[in-house]
């Protein structure tokens, strides 16, 4: 290898390894095998990913242990179910933390997306469960929906409790500015779901990566943050193809599904840095302020963002309900000695 030219060495190097030179790569999965294979720095989970993983035979021991915990905690059936699901989310997080050197993102129930105080309470409970298991809060990111209430919950968790937050379901520039002003640790602006909306709601059905509306959205947010010196970092999320991923090389972090990680590991085309602090400094962007009234108006003006945020909350809530139903059935079987 030492005698190879840089071009030849690059041709032997996967796009995934090239990407890792510019960006922190995060695995978007609850599947431990995928994490073992692609060796990301961090991992992210959400209710949909946990639901999928909880159905896999390989992870039934985690489900069973969580159910035993929930039953032992006592209370009403609803309370036992809630204890079980909190424990299950943290149990997946604990297993992931054995496999990544960095952090895991654990999501607060999407049904709390419009209740700041309940989001804060749930986050504190999840962090307490991690602490019981010997994990510092510094290794956990609490995922919250990027509603106005979610952003204020993130602000409170960061300021008062030193709990790091990952603001998810982020589609509008207004959401991004409000998150930066709230001084949250990290945002997850969605790429693929923005592209989905444009394909469904306009006549145009295909985009090159450099003109992809999701890529353009994340690029603008990244440039704004870096130009004005915000500490909140940007983790692009929700990718539909590797072109979108490569078009955001240089972003602080990118969270990528196992399927796309596999494609990137087999791809040997060149990956060049597309986003950088230096480029951001030269961007023609003006600083704006986002109080609640301005946020609600500006976000509401973005039809795509309004529809995708609402849709995302509904979908995560639906999967949370499916997971609850599955857990309740299993709890009943345990109690009945089945």
From TrEMBL:
Keywords: Cytoplasm, Pentose shunt, Schiff base, Transferase
Subcellular location, record wording: Cytoplasm
Enzyme class, broadest EC rank: transferase
Record EC number: 2.2.1.2
Transmembrane feature ranges: none
UniProt cross-references to CDD domains, sorted A to Z: Transaldolase_TalAB
A Pfam family recorded for this sequence: TAL_FSA
This protein's GO CC annotations: cytoplasm
Reaction catalysis annotation: D-sedoheptulose 7-phosphate + D-glyceraldehyde 3-phosphate = D-erythrose 4-phosphate + beta-D-fructose 6-phosphate
Family: Belongs to the transaldolase family. Type 1 subfamily.
Role description: Catalyzes the rate-limiting step of the non-oxidative phase in the pentose phosphate pathway. Catalyzes the reversible conversion of sedheptulose-7-phosphate and D-glyceraldehyde 3-phosphate into erythrose-4-phosphate and beta-D-fructose 6-phosphate.
Name the record gives this protein: Transaldolase
Organism of provenance: Xyrichtys novacula (Pearly razorfish)
């Amino acid at each position: 290898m030492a005698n190879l030219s840089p071009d030849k060495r690059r041709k032997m190097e996967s796009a995934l390894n090239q990407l890792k030179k510019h960006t922190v790569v995060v695995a978007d999965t609850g599947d431990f095998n995928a994490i073992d294979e692609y060796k990301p720095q961090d991992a992210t989970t959400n209710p949909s990913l946990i639901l999928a993983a909880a159905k896999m035979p390989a992870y039934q021991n985690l489900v069973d242990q969580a159910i035993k915990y929930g039953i032992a905690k006592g209370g009403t059936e609803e309370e036992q179910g809630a204890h079980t699901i909190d424990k299950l989310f943290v149990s997946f997080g604990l297993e992931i933390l054995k496999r990544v050197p960095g952090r895991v993102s654990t999501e607060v129930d999407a049904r709390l997306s419009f209740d700041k105080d309940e989001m804060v309470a749930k986050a504190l409970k999840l962090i307490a469960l991690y602490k019981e298991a010997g994990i510092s809060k510094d290794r956990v990111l609490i995922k919250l929906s990027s509603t106005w209430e979610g952003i204020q919950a993130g602000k409170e968790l960061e300021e008062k409790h030193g709990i790091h937050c990952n603001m998810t379901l982020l589609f509008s520039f207004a959401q991004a500015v409000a998150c930066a002003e709230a001084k949250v640790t990290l945002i997850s602006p969605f790429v693929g779901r923005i592209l989905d909306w444009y394909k469904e709601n306009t006549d145009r059905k295909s985009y090159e990566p450099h003109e992809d509306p999701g890529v353009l959205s994340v690029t603008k947010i990244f440039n704004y943050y870096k130009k004005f010196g915000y500490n909140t970092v940007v983790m692009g999320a929700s990718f539909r193809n590797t072109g979108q991923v490569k078009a955001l090389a240089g972003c602080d972090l990118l969270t990528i599904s196992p399927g796309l990680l596999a494609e990137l590991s087999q791809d040997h085309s060149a990956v060049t840095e597309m986003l950088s602090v230096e480029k951001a400094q030269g961007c023609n962007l003006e600083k704006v302020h986002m109080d609640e009234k301005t946020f609600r108006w500006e976000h509401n003006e973005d039809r795509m963002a309004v529809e995708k945020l609402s849709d995302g909350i509904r979908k995560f809530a639906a999967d949370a309900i499916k997971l609850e139903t599955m857990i309740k059935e299993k709890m009943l079987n345990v109690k009945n000695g089945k």
